[in-house]
Amino acid sequence: MVVDNADGEVLALECNCIHADNNPLQHAEQVGIRVAMARLHAKRPREVGTPVEQYYKNPLFMAPGTAPEDFINRGCTLYNTFDPCGMCAVTLLVCYMKRIAYLFDNPQFTTVYNDMRQYFRGRESLKEPLALLEDGDDTPLRKGSRLIRVMREKVKHLEESGTPLMTTVDRYRDELQQAAVLLIETEIDHLSTSGEERERNVRTLHGIKRLCNIN
Predict the structure, then answer these.
(1) How far apart are CA 150 and CA 76, in angstroms?
(2) Mean residue pLDDT across the chain
(3) Which of 197, 213, 212, 186 is nearest to 8 (CA)?
(4) What is d(CA 173, CA 150) in angstroms, rounded to the nearest whole number?
(5) What is the extent of the structural domain holding 198?
(6) E-only strand ranges, 51-162
(7) pLDDT classification of 135: cutoffs 50, 70, 90
(8) DSSP state, residue 121
(9) pLDDT digits (tens, 9 = 90+) for 107-119
(10) DSSP characters over 11-71
(11) Does the pLDDT value for residue 131 go beyond 80?
């Protein structure tokens, strides 16, 4: 999923299409980036006189700033199931994605993004595991955080026992069904943010539900 940090719009919500398209390049990140880019071209078109290189370095996925809040409020974030593979890590650097947040570690590619940043200089970008809410009130969001913690442990255990990382989540049909129910149950009142951040989060929640065909 690609989200515009500036206003919370969900620019793309895509999945892996390798088998559907018979194309090894169709990782979810690749598909999502292209869908999001098309939306951004319409949303923030290149102004007359602006060089293409300058256009894609800032008005699309990137925005200047290295303070912690800049990675939440500026540019775009790609939310990913796994820590991106080598191909997708490089693609995200090439297109100047501001922030990448992922659910599950991918030990095989842990260092690729940061290693390649030394080659792709000038990227004010960040890659990090998705932060989870602390345990507390029994809201859908906190239940979701607990569910993700459980799945992280199970994915790690499965991989250590020899299951290929990309197929670990296939073992968790029940947990994924629980996640779907939690998404359906999540309402605006469950959001803990306020002000402009809350407005962005409301738009993101509505965007996710719309793209998942949830009324």
Answers:
(1) 28
(2) 95
(3) 197
(4) 13
(5) 132-215
(6) 76-82, 99-104, 126-129
(7) confident
(8) T
(9) 999 999 999 999 9
(10) EE-----HHHHT-TT--HHHHHHHHHHHHHHHHSPPPTT--HHHHHHTTSS--S--STTHH
(11) yes
Measured between alpha carbons, how far is 215 from 15 in angstroms, rounded to an integer? 21
Return the pLDDT at 137: 85
Same domain, 175 and 212: yes
Could you tell me if 16 and 95 lie in one domain?
A: yes
* Residues 71 and 110 occupy one common structural domain: yes
The tokens describing 19, both together, are 């088998």
Same domain, 171 and 111: no
Helix (H) or strand (E) holding 178: helix 173-185
| pLDDT value of position 122 | 81
Local structure of residue 95 (DSSP, 8 states) = T
pLDDT of residue 198: 96
Both tokens of 202, joined, read 């409301």
- Cα–Cα distance between 85 and 209 in angstroms, integer? 27
The pLDDT-based confidence of 50 (bands split at 50, 70, 90) is very high
Measure Cα distances from 112 to 85, 88, 163, 168 in Å. 8, 10, 22, 21
Average pLDDT over residues 172-182: 95
